[in-house]
Amino acid sequence: MTQSAQPLDLTSCDREPIHVPGSIQPHGILLTLDPETLAIWQAAGEPQRTMGRAVEDFIAEDVEAALGPAAAALLHSPDLKLTEPLYLGSFPAPTDPTRQLDLTAHRRDGVLILEIEPSTPDPATAAQMLAGVRRISAELDAAPDLSRLLQYASREFRRLTGFDRVMIYRFLDNGTGSVVAEAKSDTLDPFLNHHFPASDIPKQARALYLQNLIRVIPDVDYRPAPVTPSVNPASGKPLDMSDCSLRSVSPIHVQYLKNMGVAASMSVSLVVDGVLWGLIACHHSSPKLVPYELRESCKHVGQILSQQIKAREDAELHRQTARLSAARDAFLEGLTRATSIEQGLLSASAELKKLVPCDGVAVLFRSRVSLAGHTPSETQTRALADWLLRSAPADTFVTHSLVQHHSAVEAFATEASGLLATVVSPEEPIVLLWFRAEHLETINWAGNPHKPAEPGEGMNQLSPRASFETWKETVRHHSRVWSLAETEAVRRLRRAVLELRQQTTLRELNTQLRRTLADQDVLLAQKDLLMREVNHRVQNSLQLVNSMLQLQARQSPDAEVKAQFEEATRRIMAVSTVHQRLWRSDHIESIDFGSYLEELREGLLEAWGEAWAEHIKVHAGSVLVATDRAVVLALVVTELLTNAVKYAYEGSPGPIDVIVREDGQGSLRVTVQDHGVGMLRDTTPKSGLGSRLIRSLIGQLGGELEIKGQSPGTAITLAVPVVAGSVQ
Prior knowledge:
By secondary structure, this protein is of the alpha+beta class. It is built from 16 helices and 29 strands.
């Protein structure tokens, strides 16, 4: 960034590669090793004080020769394949066996990374450390609320570490941070309740805080010790030090601490549900080394505090949810007694105001608006609802600074700086809106947040602000923040109202359906009575005609005429059978053709005699056929059976099979097969009544007839489409 007259900020810090600084803080030593041979590839630090050797002397040397057999023995731990730093133990310094050095190791990018730091001269025992952590845990557990929990934590953390200042720093929704608890020396100015701009802790630094839970700078005046060689031999890139406690710090951050008058610092991450909730930030006015075992205790306390924060926030969320759920249930109970859901909403705006803590409520249903409390005008509310219907998500819209989303709101921001709204139905429409008035707030910033950076000593350089004196800012066009429980309460109310509307609509439809069905039942009863009378008359008429034909057949001396009368009698009987089948069927549009043919067979047997019962067989599964086509098919089958009886067996009983199959292509194949002399003999009639009738019926069906001679007998197959529809 070049120098200019424009305001400067630290957004360039977001791009600073702080995980590959190429150097370390020199209070320790860093070595990278070949994981297989344990030969040293890279080195950094000032090993002369503890090792009596220069950094360059370590390159390509075996680790045992460089650090001694005690250190080499520690590297045989089976857990060294883990990527998370692992404390292996301590070993004597080569130049002074009375001094102990702590050794940690982890793997990254194909190398084994060792970090060596001075041990505490008189370290506490594991039991002492555990007892101290348990005492702090008990203190935190006894805190009655979140505010005092954080205050207790800052006090106990200061007692544990001895830092001059310990702050609990919370990240806010807009990226800025706020000091929500503080324990400090009496000589220091307070930072409690002060806000810090988001640029103070860049994005990539926050990402590392999630990965590496503790960060220590023992002396801000340190001189970075470069890694030699600078490139990782395994990856061909600079060494990734994301998990290294010795990792060098951004020069901008170092200057930031110096400007605050801080000589040493430590930060411990507070992670809640996988999100960086905040930091335990520790400052000291003089250099301060934090040994490994104390850092581990601090990490444990940080994890305990994170769990306590989650538990307190979850408990508060549960209490809010239970309270709001009770209010919602009471509101819905009243809504069910309204003449309509929409009318109930319009007349219950005052009750809606009690559902969620707010300053005003508006209900918009079609062209009507109902207001309660401190709200924008009706015209302004309509315009806001129109904007929501066009721009906002269909579920729930929530903001504590509405003007940032819709600039026109500035005209009535006093009444509606905050908005929680839901569109119940975009079609009518139905919109519910809760308003919160402008809440003027004076924020104490630790320095001017609008001037987070100043020009550095040279071109393209920035320095963090030098002043952290309290800088007051009055925030406009903001309301109190809506809680997660309040937002969820509105979301659930929307679902409940939708369900009520659906239930109401269903009840109305059921009422209309019952009324319609009752009317239809009367019509059906009348129709049934009429159809019974029609059926009775049709059957009587057919029987009368049939009796007359039989009488004529008996009285006629001419055998051929007599045969014609008998054939006409059989056809009338077939028509009667078809009519009876349709009358008894539960299906009007289609019938089971296989069952239909079985009934037709039974009717024919009544006329032909029981001698035919064991000879005529129907082979058909369940095949649905349109009723109008089934009637015509039944008449064709009747004619084919009649012809088989007449011509194949000359009236004497013989085997006849009726076979029904679907060909899978929308066609039905009906075969009438006998084993008699067949219809292929010369005496087969070509122009008789039966033949003319069959050709006429097949033409109506749009089908084809195939006659195939067998030895003995004849198979006549009718192939017809079975699509629904009327015959031509």
